[in-house]
Amino acid sequence: MKKLLSKIVLFLILSLTAFSYNFPIDDPYSATIIGSASMMTEGVSENIPLKVYEIQIKDKKDIPDVFWYASKFKFSFSKQKNKKAPLIFVLAGTGSDYSTTRVKFMQRIFHDAGYHTIAISSQMSQQFMISASSNSVPGLLLEDNEDIYKAMKLAYNKIKDQVEVTDFYIMGYSLGGSNAAVLSYIDEKEKAFNFKRVFMVNPPVNLYDSAVKLDKYLDDYTGGKSAGIEKLLNTTLAKIKGGLTSEYANIGADTIYNIVKGDILSDSEKKAYIGLAFRLASTDLNFISDFITKSHIYTKNPEKVDKYTNMKEYFKAVNFATFEDYVNKIGFPYYKKYNKDLTTEDLKEKASLRVIEDYLRTSPKIAAVTNADELILNEKDFAFLKDVFKDRLIIYPKGGHCGNMFYKENVDIMLKFINEGVFKYEN
User: Which first-to-last residue range defines the signal peptide (predicted)?
Assistant: First the structure.
């Protein structure tokens, strides 16, 4: 009997070892900072043929002079030597644009796997809000993705003579993951691409709830005071050799994470840096949306501002505004003008994957991955994902927010699904 029990225990240990998940960073905050800014898969090409294209989507007269630098929509494209190949759209995360490190990492991975790639900026990036958003008030998933879908069609049209696409695919991380699913929903009717498969990496379920969690990380550390936030930002930028340069003029998550990923930090400091990266995106969101919509929350006289105006006082007025500030002061009042019965709860629902819940339940071509220690999800969100996706959802035991998406095991599972439609993870 003892021998039998010993064999059973040994079998269980071997089974556990065989299927254990060996991502090397246990702490979700460190994973988010280090992993999401590091390629953790060996053999991926360092350089691929990548070219940036521009498209004039909006009429120039509708773009304020102060935003001249982003008047044209930009995207990056990498092509295979063989024209005949599949093409995948890579969608950037919250507030990030087509040129961020994480997007380029994904393009390198898929280029090596034999795909043409087109990288698309987030609807909450400066680049997209100014050049491609129909109203510059992002946050409603269906409306935002109508804009993204239009931009994708124009981007493909720009390069289509260079390729012979066998099938179209789409993937995104963070908000880009949620966007990927909504774009697939839109495409079921429009049929511009007929996506073969869709892959969602660490998607938020409800954009508003996730944003509030990240805002709180920073406020808990700084007491919600702008002086504390400014001090943290300046301390971070001081770590750059030579101080702040033009390279860091548009500071985002990639910049913050690359600066601090080698530092020894407490949990509260790690959370603060994660919150800071998100807050900077929220600040851009508040300023640009207010300016373009003439909401007069932060910019009282936008008509007097041109490309030669010193913007320091205007940026100061935004005062590190949160995503919640954006919703309450700009987003909700803007949409309320078009629907007097609209409530804030209605608005939050429109920022949720629940707007396409029925489609997500029934579409076998969509798969999602997240982590058990995901920073932007709550228990209700996990329950929603499990209930809706069932066996089309993988929850890795660790990885934080997007911290393990370049880890080899994750990359292999992603490519297996995109390439073959096989979605399997043993743990």
Answer: 1-20
| Distance of alpha carbon 32 from alpha carbon 26, whole angstroms | 11
Calpha distance 240→272 (Å, rounded): 18
Tokens 């987030």 belong to residue: 122
Cα distance between residue 195 and residue 201, in whole Å: 17
Which tens digit of pLDDT belongs to each residue from 27-70? 999 999 988 778 989 999 999 999 999 999 999 999 999 999 99
Residue type (1 letter), 54: E
Task: Note whether 48 and 108 are within 8 A (CB).
Answer: yes
Phi, psi dihedral angles at 392 (to 5 degrees): -100, 15
Q: Contact 217/272 with Cβ under 8 angstroms?
A: yes
The 10 Å Cβ neighbour count of residue 13 is: 10
pTM (2 d.p.): 0.91
* Range 104-130 average pLDDT: 98
Cα–Cα distance list, 166 to 83, 169, 194, 209, 322 (Å) = 10, 10, 11, 39, 43
Q: What is the CATH number of domain 38-205+353-420?
A: 3.40.50.1820
Residue 216, CB-side half-sphere exposure with 13 Å CA sphere: 8
Domain ranges within the chain, ordered by starting residue: 38-205+353-420, 210-346
In the structure encoding, which two tokens stand for residue 263, read together?
């530092």
Sheet containing 164-173: which strands, arranged edge to edge? 50-55, 73-78, 116-120, 84-91, 164-173, 197-201, 366-371, 393-396
What totals of helices (H) and strands (E) does the chain contain, helices first? 17, 8
Please name which of 106, 97, 94 lies closest in space to residue 141, comparing C-alpha atoms. Answer: 94
Alpha-carbon gap, residue 182 to 355, rounded angstroms: 9
Tokens of 237: 């930028």
User: Token pair of 188, please?
Assistant: 């079921």
Phi, psi of 378 (to 5 degrees): -110, 180
Counting Cβ atoms within 10 Å, is residue 87 exposed (0-12), middle (13-18) or buried (19+)?
Answer: buried
Separation CA 154–CA 134 (nearest Å): 15
